[in-house]
Structure formats: C-alpha cells, structure tokens
Amino acid sequence: MTRLAGLWSRWRRRIGGSGWICWRALGVLALLIFGCRLGLAQIGPRYVLALDGRGTAQQAAAPGQLQLAGKGLTLISFQGLRILTLGVDAEAYSREAMAHWPAADLLLLTSADGGRYSGVAPLATLGDLPVILAATPQEEGRTPPLYALQLWQALHLHKGKIRLRVTALPDQPGSAQVGGFMLDMGNGRTSYRLYVSCSMLAAGAAQALAQRLPGADLALLPDRQVPQVLALQGKRVSTPTALTPSGQQFVPVRR
C-alpha cells in the first residue's frame, strides 16, 4: 500500500496543474466504456423460443433434407427440427390448403402478401405454430405466434440439443428491405447454413449471391413453378436447380 501511495503522489506532482484535464479524460473514458457495455448488453435475438426436444436425440446423426410439401411449400428437416417455408404462391394461404400441410415446428413466411386470402389472416387458425415473417407496418405490433423480424433482427429457437438462429437479411447491400432469412442450424458439433430468399433470383446473379453470403452452404429460392436450390460453397457456383419430388439431402458441416 505504501508503494502504491508513493506512485500516486509522484503521478499527481507530474501532472501538476493539468490534473483537471486528466480527470476529465478519465471521466469521458468511463462514460464510453459504460456506453459500450450497455450497447453490447442490448445486442441479441429479438425472440427466443424453446420447444420440447423429445425424440431429437435419435435423429442426431441424420442428414438434413429439403422436400416439396405442396404448392408454394418446402419442408426443411434437420435432426428432428421441421421448418415449413411458405413462398409467394397465394393459394397456399387458404384454409383448405392449410388442412393438408405437414406437421412442423416453425413456419417461415417469405412473402407477406397473401393476395385474395387477406394476407396472413388465415394463419390465425394454425394455433400455437410460431410464424416468422418480415416486419411491415401492418405486422409491426402483432402479438405472437407471429414473429415479425426487421432487418438484422434474429429469432433463436432451441429444441433439445438442436439450435436454430433465423436472421433477417437485406435483399441487396445497403438495402433497408428484408430480402431473405439465414437459417443457422446446429447441434453443438456440426451445423448447416441455409439461406431462404424472399424473391426469385435474377438471371446470372448466382455468383453475386454466393459472394454476398460467404458463410452460407445452400440457398432456397422461390420460383413460379417449383422452388430452386443453389449450392453456395465451392470454387465455382453453378446455376440453380429445381427441387424435385424426391427432395434434396444436405450434410451438416463440422466447422
């Protein structure tokens, strides 16, 4: 303690009359540190959901799969987690069509326009099924199970050891409009990153999409006929291919 007191005394003599400047600088630094900590504390997912994980352990080694599930529908399966994506086809919003949807843990809406079916109104009949969609003035303030994500916001979902993060991404660099959702699926050992686009891919834009999403493994793209899939890893990105009735498997990656 005596040594510390001596150091403090010498430091005070050295700064002399400019001490008030140092104290002011220290005060500003303290405020900056506090502000940074406060900002970091506010960073995180907008929503966090936890589902019953019974049955997922038996599928821990199973590959993931994309399957056609009806007009405008694609079912994403990942080791016991089932995500149903609803594309731009307005007919898929009808109550009659929803009666034939496969069981799912989560519904991802890539179009907020339901056409003649009054937007997302019919989805109220789905009960407790969580629904993710891009935030719009009409959807902002809606209560769960509608989870409206603004740009860069995320939803985290836990089901047993399976973790899912859904992040709303822009359609183009610098854009303020949600153009798609990145799905990060993992079990703590392996993971897979699937980008689900809200709009059709322009001709010749595959390479640009891959460059814009360097961490994604696969892209699911809407189309007027059937959804398209595009592998995003590799030295050369190929053209999108139609998702066939037999579906497409994907293998989680150890990163």
Provide an overview of this structure.
It is a single chain. By secondary structure, the chain is of the alpha/beta class. The protein folds into two domains: 41 residues; 197 residues, Metallo-beta-lactamase, Chain A. Helix content is 19%, strand content 31%. It is built from four helices and 15 strands. The strands form two sheets. The chain has an eight-stranded mixed β-sheet, with no helix packed on it. Strands 7-6-5-4-3-2-15 form a seven-stranded mixed β-sheet, with no helix packed on it. Strand 9 and strand 10 form a beta hairpin. The protein is globular, with a radius of gyration of 24 Å. 27% of the residues are buried. About 7% of the residues have low confidence.
Order of helices and strands: HHEEEEHEEEEEEEHEEEE
Distance between the termini: 49 Å
Shape: globular
The domain tally reads 2
Widest β-sheet, arrangement of strands: 1-8-9-10-11-12-13-14
Radius of gyration over all CA atoms, rounded: 24 Å
Helix count, DSSP H or I runs of 4 or more residues: 4
**Mean pLDDT score:** 78
Beta-strand residue percentage: 25-35%
Describe the main β-sheet briefly.
8 strands, mixed
Which fold name is given in CATH as the topology of the largest domain?
Answer: Metallo-beta-lactamase, Chain A
What CATH architecture label of the largest domain applies? 4-Layer Sandwich
| Number of beta strands | 15
Helix/strand-derived category reads alpha/beta
- Provide the helix percentage: 10-25%
The CATH first-level class of the largest domain comes to Alpha Beta
Give the low-pLDDT segments. 25-42
